[in-house]
Amino acid sequence: MKISQFVISVLFVAFITKVTAQEITVFPGFWSEKYYQDDTQISKKQVETLMLSDAEASTYWQKSKNHMTIAWVAFGAEVGFLVWQLNRGNNGDSQTVPLIGVLGSAGVAIGFALSSSNLKKKAILSYNNNLETNTLYLGPTQDGLGLSLSF
Question: Which residue has the higher pLDDT, 137 or 108?
Answer without folding.
Answer: 108
